[in-house]
Amino acid sequence: MSGPYAADRLVALLDAILQRSGSSPEEAAIVAANLVDSDATGHASHGVCQIAVYAKSLELGHLQPNRHARVVRDEAPFLVVDGEVGYGQVIAREATDLAIARAKAGGACVLALRNAHHIGRVGSYGEQCIDAGLIGVFFVNVVSRPLAAPHGGGRPRLGTNPICIAVPATPGHPPFLLDFATSAVAANKCRVAAATGKEVADGLLIDERGAPTRDPGVMFRDPTGAILPFGGHKGYGLALACEILAGALAGGLPALPENLRPGRVVNNALAFLIDPARVSDTENGGWQALTDAVLDHIQDTPPVPGGDGVLVPGGPERRSRALAAERGITLDPDTVRALHDIGGALGLDVPVFLGG
C-alpha cells in the first residue's frame, strides 16, 4: 500500500486530472471530492482507484464530460431524470437535489435516474437526503462487465447492485446510513488482493467452472470467475430486485448481454425520498423518539466475548472519516501507479501534488 496522503492533496490532483481531461472546474471539483471522500469513508472500491476506469471510459467515448441531469418527466410524485452518460457524481447529485425539492414540497418523491455513468458511493446521495431531513431509499443496478453469480449459478450474470437506506439524525443518535453492495465482496478488493498475491476468504468467489476458490485472480482472467451474492439466496434476491427496479423499470437498461459494452459503466437507480414528518404519528414523541428507543435498545445488547459491541450503520464511515482526517488516506500500489501514469500523460507533476 502507498501513502498515507492528505485528502486535500488527492482532491487537488484528481481535480487537475479531470480538468485536463475536459471537465469544467465545477464538475472536476464535485467528482474529485466524491472520489476522495469514498476512500476516506472506507469505501476504496468507489474512490480514487476509479480514475483509471474514467480515463478509459473517456478514451472509448463511453463517458461524456459536462453533462447535467435532464428532466424527462416531472409528474408529482414521480421524477424521471436522464444522465446522458455524464459523470455520475454530478448527475446523481443534481437528480437527488431535484428529488429533495419535490419531496419537501409534496412529502415524497419517486426518482428514476437513468443512463448515468458510474455514480460512485451511493451513500453520498443518502447523505444528501439526511442533510435535507428526508429518508432516502435507493436501488441501483450496474451495467458493466457482470461480476456476480446468481444464487445457484456458476457464471456471472449480475453487477454488484447496491442498496442504500438513509435516515436523518435523531436527538439521541447520529444518522442511520445503510449502504452495501449485494455481492459478497467488492471487485476492487479482489483486484487489490490479486495485485498483492493474497487470497480472499472462503465463500466469496467461484472460478470459471463454478467451483469455490480463494484465488482473486479468477476475476481478471478470461473466462472469469464470479463473486457470490452475500447471504446466499437473500443477497441474490436483493441484487435481482435492483436489476428489475433500477435497470428494467427506472432505466430501461438492465444488464443484459445486448446492453453491455467493453469499458462502459452505467448506473440506473430507483429512489424513494420521504419526509418523515408527513408519515409519523406525533404521539409518544413521534418517529425520532421511537427511533432513539429502538437504537438505544439495540446498542444496549451485551457484546460477544472480546467484541466491541453493536454498531449502527453509518458509524463505521464516520469513524473512518475521522481517522482519514487525522492520519491521511492510504492507496493501493496499482492506484498510485495509475495516478502517476494518467497525470503524467496530461503534463502534471504528480509527485508535487502528492507531496513527494
Automatic annotation (TrEMBL):
Belongs to the LDH2/MDH2 oxidoreductase family. The keyword Oxidoreductase applies. Keywords: Oxidoreductase, Plasmid. This is Malate/lactate/ureidoglycolate dehydrogenase. One of its GO terms (molecular function) is oxidoreductase activity. Pfam families: Ldh_2 (PF02615). The keyword Oxidoreductase applies. SUPFAM superfamilies: L-sulfolactate dehydrogenase-like. InterPro entries: Mal/L-sulf/L-lact_DH-like_ah (IPR043144), Mal/L-sulf/L-lact_DH-like_NADP (IPR043143), Mal/L-sulfo/L-lacto_DH-like_sf (IPR036111), Malate/L-lactate_DH-like (IPR003767).
